[in-house]
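Aim 2 progress update. The chain analyzed this quarter is reproduced below.
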Amino acid sequence: MLRYILYRIFMIIPILFLASFIIFYLLRLNNTDPVAQYLINSNLPSTPEVIAEIRHEFGLDKPILEQYLLWLQKAVSLDFGKSYMSDRDVWSDFLYYLPNTLLLALFAFLLTILVSVPFGIIAAYYRDKIPDFLIRFICFIGVCMPNFWFAFLLIMLFSLTLGWLPALGVDGLHSFILPAISIAFMSICVNIRLIRANMLEVSKERHILYAYLRGLKKGHVTIKHVFYNATLPIITALGMHFGELIGGALIIESIFAIPGIGYYSLQGIANHDYPIIQCFVLIMCLVFSLCNLIIDICYAALDPRIRKNMEGSHVL
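Predicted structure tokens:
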């Protein structure tokens, strides 16, 4: 199994290379010019001489392949260049903003698990009864509602009307409550529906019927047998949701004025700041790749058949 894990870690490298080249190339195919935005923000005249000088300073006057190779040579040593707008080191800025984003994503991820698992079990246990209908109705609304719109509703209720929680900025852990709920709400609803569907599917299998024939109570069978055997698809969804929660911070951090990598990256996108955008895309690729790796490890821990296949793998 160790060989398989090392192989998966090694395969992350070409994925990052491919993702970096694609985003690098697509940004330069875009009609927007970061130099024009830079001139506007800096109040500089847009004369041909000034434009040529700025493009030379940013290295945008070179062929795309040469630009990429120069950028890649520095990126390997975690030098992603300097921001076009602030002239600060991009990687240093990401490290500065990263703790707030990780704290927000972790808070939202724990909220997703703590809410979706029990309510998913309740919905499956009370199938086609009032609790099930109520939970499914709320989940239907949650899946259809964009998280930024839900964030505005939370701000109006808990900040502007009741005054219980702050709407903007970071002033302690309580400042992350509304943003975490905003990001996690859709993930919670999706997971509840997934847990319910998987548990209902597992409940039709023979070993569940045998458990009832042995005289076991419905609650015991639901938790010990049905839910346990329905966990593998749930783990996949939870792993992917963690990456989505970090990606969702792009909008939510801007709404709640939280200084995180989402807020920072959105500013970079608005200003066509290539170094910031490229660094953000690479971080997201790395996050999703690591989430996939952790999911596979969890699969092996829960299912001996998968673990045996990994141990017998000859990928190296």
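The chain has a mean pLDDT of 82. The CA atoms of residues 40 and 139 lie 45 Å apart. These observations will guide the mutagenesis experiments scheduled for the next reporting period.
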